[in-house]
Design a protein that fits this description.
The chain has 484 residues and is an alpha/beta fold. Helices cover 35% and strands 19% of the residues. It is globular. The protein binds nicotinamide-adenine-dinucleotide.
């Protein structure tokens, strides 16, 4: 298979927060990989901007180190690296003190695509947006990329949207959710809308239930204080898992076009039923496996923030009436895995004399590890001895199916950054989507607070709290095993 990398238009990408963790671990290595893939045009430039007082040469040395640490050695071509580093510049800029803007203005070219990546704390987003306009740096076609978290409730998200809207049009604002940049997530849309096979079955008549799992083995570690103000519902469900749910549940958009797709996602969020108390289980991990417990990690012995959450969610529309969506995510669980599993109903009548209860087809979309798609189907157990059925996977690991090209798939961040340069907002959240998601989330949190609900403890390295199992058992279903 021949790789089809099409270079993007010449651009200046300014990374605010360029010395920070995200820029160093994801953005700079990702840009280098795009450079190796041949997607960066010769006059593309990347300008780092952060508070540290660095020269461009020092910033390049920093980039060299982070690329060595975070990019596959097989891609580390010396000549390409020098070429990439020669496109980097750095400006010391303090948004709050208002220093460094002139130096930035002298570097940003007005006649190329301008993208400004806000890889800084959200409290700085407003000042950055204002500064870019007030200093006359952002041209009419400029794009801004804003990182999560986008608000911590509906009111703060509305305020942030209003602040950004005071300086930029919605068509210039790219709210990043890196889950949407994952290859498999986009494949979910391809599987649904480019094949006739699934869509006729994609409804409550044929789908028994959907499970979405995002499990991590790590705890909150050094981010404890930050995480304790957030929790799993805000940190994972309101954004990433909600987006996955939307892509599964949405109606076919009329076209693969940013607003057509986002209109359909918005309808799903608005159709989400309020979640009752009995539809949620929250947990906090205990010490174990050589690691401290959540309360210690968070530095808050009386914390009632959840490091795990499981929910049963209903989408109130014709397509999904009666099909529950079970969502769970947590830290310090037994394996690191993210997947969506769509369990179809059993055939209405069996012509075989086998036991019931295991004849369902399951479509599993794996986000990590090993991005891929797997469809469990029933076949005859091979060999003599009559007709016995066995469930086997039709497995498509992208790395295997696509060979070298599949193994070398762009990371979510690099794909999304290239979408920003191309001006394609399809995989970015629109302001109204984010607000609708908070409008659904806020009453859940308000309920916990009003009742003083506390999360249940769970063992580190387990599958989460016992009650989460019950959440599905009560419905006569069970969670898929959490494993890599
Ligand atoms: P960080 O604390 O590691 O880096 C912050 C950066 O902001 C530094 O480069 C610092 O110099 C710069 N900065 C701070 N104050 C400034 C000021 N007044 N003016 C100019 N620059 C200033 O943070 P991070 O982990 O890289 O996160 C950046 C953003 O990305 C945050 O919004 C975070 O929520 C989000 N995010 C991070 C990750 C991650 O994996 N690190 C994941 C998702 C989202």
């Amino acid at each position: 298979m021949v790789s089809r990398v099409i270079p993007v238009d010449p651009f200046d990408l300014v990374i605010f927060g360029a010395t920070g963790d995200l820029a160093q671990r994801k953005i700079l290595p990702g840009l280098f990989r795009r450079h190796v893939a041949g997607q960066m045009p010769t006059d593309a430039r990347v300008i780092g901007a952060a508070r540290s007082d660095l020269s461009s040469a020092e910033f390049r040395a920093m980039a060299r180190e982070t690329i060595a640490a975070h990019v596959d050695p097989a891609l580390q071509d010396a000549a390409l690296l020098e070429d990439f580093l020669s496109r980097l510049d750095y400006v010391a800029l303090d948004v709050q003190a208002g220093t460094g803007w002139e130096a930035l203005r002298s570097l940003v070219r007005p006649d190329v695509v301008q993208a400004f990546y806000f890889s800084v704390a959200p409290v700085l987003f407003g000042d950055l947006a204002e500064g870019l306009q007030a200093q006359g740096i952002a041209g009419p076609g400029a794009r801004i990329v804003v990182e999560k978290p986008f608000g911590r409730d509906l009111a703060s998200a509305q305020a942030l949207n209003a602040t950004l809207a005071a300086h930029f049009e919605e068509s210039q604002i790219y709210r990043i959710d890196h889950y949407l940049g994952k290859e498999t997530v986009q494949n979910l849309m391809a599987v649904r809308f480019a094949n006739i096979l699934f869509e006729p079955l994609w409804n409550a008549q044929y789908i028994d239930h959907v499970q979405i799992t995002v499990a991590e083995t790590v705890g909150v570690g050094g981010r404890g204080a930050y995480y304790d103000r957030s929790g799993a519902l805000r940190d994972m469900v309101q954004n990433h898992m909600m987006q996955l749910l939307c892509l599964i549940a949405m109606e076919p958009p009329w076209h693969f076009d940013p607003d057509a797709v986002r209109d359909e996602k918005l309808k799903v969020i608005r159709a989400l039923q309020p979640v009752g108390r009995g539809d949620i289980v929250r947990g906090q991990y205990l010490a174990g496996g050589g690691g401290p417990g959540y309360l210690e990690d968070a530095g808050n012995p009386s914390s009632d923030t959840e490091s795990y959450i499981a929910l049963r969610v209903h989408v109130a529309n014709w397509r999904w009436k009666g099909t529950p969506f079970y969502l769970r995510t947590g830290k310090r669980l037994r394996a690191r895995t993210s997947e969506i599993a769509i369990t179809f109903k059993e055939p209405p009548h069996s012509i075989f004399d086998d036991a019931r209860g295991w004849r369902e087809n399951v479509l599993v979309i794996r986000l990590q590890p090993n991005e891929g798609i797997n469809l469990k189907v029933m076949i005859k157990e091979p060999g003599p001895g009559g007709m016995r059925l066995v469930q086997v996977p039709l497995d498509m690991s992208f790395a295997t199916a696509l060979g070298a090209e599949g193994a070398d798939m762009p990371d979510a961040y690099e794909r999304l950054i290239m979408d920003v340069i191309r001006g394609n907002q399809t995989l970015f959240m629109r302001g109204d989507e984010v607000e609708a998601a908070w409008a659904w989330t806020d009453p859940i949190i308000a309920g916990w607070q009003a009742r003083g609900d506390r999360p249940q403890p769970y063992d580190a390295g387990s599958s989460g709290p016992e009650d989460a199992l019950m959440l599905m058992h009560r419905d006569g279903r069970r969670w898929r095993e959490i494993r890599e």
